[in-house]
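Amino Acid Chain and Its Fold in Token Form
===========================================
Structure side: the spatial fold of the chain, written down as a series of whole-number tokens.
Position: the record begins directly beneath this header, with no further notes in between.
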Amino acid sequence: MVKLTKIYTRSGDDGSTGLGTGARVPKDDPRVSAYGDVDETNAVLGVAILHAPPETQPLLRSIQHDLFDLGADLCIPSTPEADPSTQLRITQSQIDRLERAIDDCNDKLTPLTSFVLPGGSSAASHLHVARTVARRAERSIVTLIHHDPDHTNPLALTYINRLSDLLFVLARVANDDGRADVLWEPGKTRDQDKDPR
């Protein structure tokens, strides 16, 4: 059980922060950037849940727990000799659950005929914001893997990649199963000389 009794410690005032191992690193370290972007993904997902269709809210809330697991995974560098049962790591079963959710939702969506613009309903718009923040977290995890491949769980990258796919599908679900999607029209404004209002 996590117990937080003091919110500020002043230990980060020098621009450093503590990893889960207790080691101090700069706050712009690739590992800190990665789990910071995961934290931001979780925060925007919390806003998206307020607007999401009721039937998708339990799934999204469960993903918030996964994202804390992912942050915990990233903040403790992995080592080959570590006992996997003693450290919280993203597992294949968590990824499998996302893939099942993608398949279940995608089956009922109208086929896509173009790229989708972020928008439509309020719920879809917030889910698209969460999707793009998840993609940023993905890029940060890629940077971390390049920086420290031997101490980073590769399933962390797979999980966040799959999550952004799921958020795209759920945004389409929130747009009346894709029927209310706003589709990109290539070159739509190139030859317009009228005021778009």
